[in-house]
Amino acid sequence: MNSVIRTVHRWTSLVFSLAVASIFAGMAITTLPEWFYYLPLPPLFVLIPTGIYMFFLPYLGGQRNAVPASKGSAL
Ligand code: HEM
Prior knowledge:
transmembrane, mainly alpha, single chain, Transmembrane protein, membrane, transmembrane helix, binds protoporphyrin IX containing FE
């Protein structure tokens, strides 16, 4: 389940980035129709809930070895 959410977030971020990039590229070439500027919104509305879910994952318990990023284990 968690890995599905993470994979959805990862691939949606790619779609989101391409939508934003295509707006900048399009603006350099021509005048874009107004709806074109709204293209990043659908993927953004997927990124927000999946991202917030992943943010709180370490605090929700369940995963015994989970370490919140704020208490990093790098040292
Ligand atoms: C808009 C609200 C967003 C929230 C709240 C959010 C939150 C998060 C969180 C909490 C993680 C997990 C970090 C970790 O593992 O410690 C994550 C991973 C990631 N986020 Fe977001 N994110 C958002 C939007 C975006 C956007 C706009 C992009 C890129 C265009 C993006 C790309 C990624 C990628 C590539 C990962 C790594 C996923 C993986 O493990 O493969 N996120 N995000």
